[in-house]
Amino acid sequence: MPVSPKQARTLKHRSWVAFLVIPPIVFMSLFVVYPILSAFAYAFYEWRGLARGDFVGLANFKDVLFGPTMGPVVWNAFLHNVYALIALMIIQNGGGFLLAWLLYKEPFGFRFHRVAVFVPVVLSTIIVGFLWKLFLNPNFGLVNQALYSVGLDALAKPWLGDSSTALGALILANAWHFVGFPTLVYLAGMQRIPSEIIEAARLDGTTEWQLLKNVVWPLVAPSTTILFTLLFIGAFNWFEIPYVMVGLDGSPFGSTDVLGLVFYRTAFGNQSASIQNFGQGSALATILFLFIVVFASLLTLWLRRREIQF
Amino acid sequence: MTIAFAPSTVAARSSETRAMSFAFLAQIILILNSFVMLYPVVVMVFSAFKSTGEIFEHPFALPDFTQVQNFARVLGETSMPTYFLNSIVVTGVSILLILLLGTMAGYAVARYESRTNTVVLLFFLAGLMLPLKLAVIPLFILLRDLSLLDSRWSLIVTYTAIGLPSAVFIMAGFLRSLPSELEDAARIDGASEPRIMWSVMLPLARPPMAIAAIQNAVPIWNDFFFPLVFIQTDSAKTLPQGLTTFMGEYTTDWGMLFAGLTIAAAPITLLYIALSRQFIQGMTAGAVK
After folding, report:
1. Which residues form a coiled coil (chain A) (predicted)?
2. Chain B residues with CB-CB distance to A113 below 8 A
3. Domain B79-249 maps to which CATH number in 3.90.1590.10, 3.40.50.1470, 3.30.920.30, 1.10.3720.10?
């Protein structure tokens, strides 16, 4: 049957649009959708190395959360993720907010300070981790050397070797690495506030603190929403800094163990126990995934409610 | 800024002094903060010019910048140049694929009306939200079945998949804002659809392409997790992963360690200093509207 010119045009048009859309969709389906859906499925099977065994229902989930070996490790790690989240919310996001406010006023040299605060953000986490590991070395590290040179020998510590300071050291290294990100996101948020609002508040004689608390903080709520949600996701995916600075086992004595390290050890093994358990690893990944999706959505919805339109 | 003409009242004077002392305090905090941000990087570079003994004895001293043997050894004795090259290839090819596929999908969604557009956008939105890191086990098995494991391609396809959704949104958002008179004029002149896309529309879309490229290039260049899982062979390692191998080999030679870190940090830091506005804009693009 001969094709009418109009049909030919739409056919040609359709195949052109299909040519544009189908390759990206196929790519995403193969390398994102399929692995994520499989990740859920894998968790319900027993695995022998790389080979899939029998369907075992929820056994892997039970082992991961309440099993005698995995259970305590997972909950211990979870607690450390929560500590890191809370500490980073205050130091990293809170510090970023204050720095942004100082930069917002465009004081002398603000262009320099704005570029400087973002330098660690562009560095690889691996570089940041190794750098701070060297600086925190008990004998020759910069931190203890600085303490010795000002006579504060008593404060010098094996920061990463002491279970009371190791997690704190990792959190501070992370804050150093990323504080520039919330700073510049908040700065952009502040610059979007109509300047009349801030001037009006100034004319009313509000103090700096009142201005910050009652005017600026509520008006940068959209930035807060996105920064806190990103930090939440990041804190429960935390892996690189602990891996580089304290190793796969979260030493000393599991005091820096986080879920990312537990997941990696379970799924891909480590030197001391090279047992791979894809079933338990997938169960842990699935739990973590659902936890992040559910709580990040709730957090976003809750934070969105306090956003004001202007 | 307001300049008080007759600050004769006590209230005006005290508020002015308060503002002055606040500005002074702000300046001190900012200077201290920039010092804390930059000094570790400066020490890293200085230490790279010192021997291990010098680092231990005079950690804060200025080095002799003509002593470049640490750098020479890192570049001559170790696999660092290979890691470096791999990082360039992996990041470059991934960005090209992200821009290619992202522009294709973004263009179709933005410029052609279709009932499936919303579905396509939702599909990519889901990809934007889901952390692929947690699907690393099935991805590992998939790449093994495709015989891509332990090669640079394993990283390229993974990074492309992670970066694609954001590129689709950036490109679609921009392309939608272009006036349709542009295409209509070309269509009346008899230009084909591919020609309209290539010669009329895409030349205008360079700024969003730059944003999408920077937003993805920095995390890809810096990524460590996927190489750790996918790559075993030394010759396929990228810089962050190679750095862990290198750091393990020279644990006691601190001069070498700092030189290795400096070499690894140099390209991105220099590029950032040269293009800081574009970097900041690109890297915060997802969080700033």
Report:
1. none
2. 30-31, 33-34
3. 1.10.3720.10
